[in-house]
Amino acid sequence: MPSYRRSARLAALLLPLTAPAAAAQLQLRVDGQLGFASAYVDRGVILTNTPVLQPALRVGIPSKGGLVALGLWANVEPATYADPSYFSMADTLKRPNLTEFRPSLSFTQGFGGKREVARFELTAEYRMFPNVAGITSESNTGRITTGVGLTAVPFAPTVLVGYELGGVLGAFVDGRVAQSLRVAPGLVLDLGARGGWSIRQQADPATGAMAAYTRDGFAYADLTAGMSVTVAGVTVRPWLTWTLVESPAAPGTGPRYQRSDYLWVGATVGAGGVFPKAKPAPAKR
């Protein structure tokens, strides 16, 4: 019998045995989160100063210090506010209202083994605005961001470079630092800062999109303090952020009431884990 036929029969016999084992090795990292915030601020731009809900879900495949993940994130304005000082992404439309939706695909990879020293990240996301008033689908924009962080040094400094294509055109550079300090079992103090630089960002002239920055230069800086409390696998994290905007968007190109600085607060409730759980190795006799 030709050798390739024997090989084919052997593969057919082994496949039912190896397939369950391969499937059992596949694990998924699932993380869910619900955020509450007094406003929605994106890279220094106050898109709404009304309270919002921000649910998020991420499902990924971990492997050798890396993670490939699909993500879903949304911004929801739950109620209508009569005070004229409030402004909305949905203009006068009824609430609750889904004002933005972001599907994403991301890849992260750590370097250095168990003592990780650096981390690479690449994210592609699409910002979708489903409303027919306020910020509409004309502002739908794709965003690709890549960055490298030094995870073995204090505050893990990270530099990100991004490009937007769609309703908004242009590039940006962001930098961030973050440090978590264990205060007590299950209690962690989170400190962080983030800043950005715009590079020829503008609205696509063929659309009615809103572009926050219409010139090169410093865009924003954020300072954040939070406290994470974990109980029974659920993490609650209240936080406070102060945002500085050196020069808001030029008149007529940005949201109303844009300010040079802004203080906003919020909290997130989240849980996650790897499924199915890895089985413990059998004890040696």
Q: Helical stretch count?
A: 1
**Spatial gap, N to C terminus:** 44 Å
Q: Give me the side-by-side strand order of the main sheet.
A: 1-4-5-6-7-8-9-10-11-12-13-14
Range of helix content = under 10%
Mean pLDDT over the full residue set: 85
Radius of gyration: 23 Å
Q: Stretches where pLDDT falls below 50 for ≥5 residues?
A: 18-23, 248-257
Main sheet specs: 12 strands, antiparallel, barrel
Structural class comes to mainly beta
- What proportion strand? over 45%
The backbone outline, from C-alpha atoms, is globular
Could you give a quick summary of the protein structure above?
8% of the residues lie in helices and 56% in strands.
Show the helix and strand layout.
Elements: H1 3-25, E1 28-37, E2 40-42, E3 45-48, E4 52-63, E5 66-77, E6 97-111, E7 118-127, E8 141-149, E9 158-166, E10 168-184, E11 187-203, E12 217-231, E13 234-244, E14 261-275
Descriptive notes:
This protein has 285 residues and is mainly β. It has one helix at residues 3-25; strands at residues 28-37, 40-42, 45-48, 52-63, 66-77, 97-111, 118-127, 141-149, 158-166, 168-184, 187-203, 217-231, 234-244, 261-275. The strands form two sheets. It has a twelve-stranded antiparallel barrel. It has a two-stranded antiparallel sheet with strand order 2-3. A hairpin with a 2-residue loop joins strand 10 and strand 11. The protein is globular, with a radius of gyration of 23 Å.
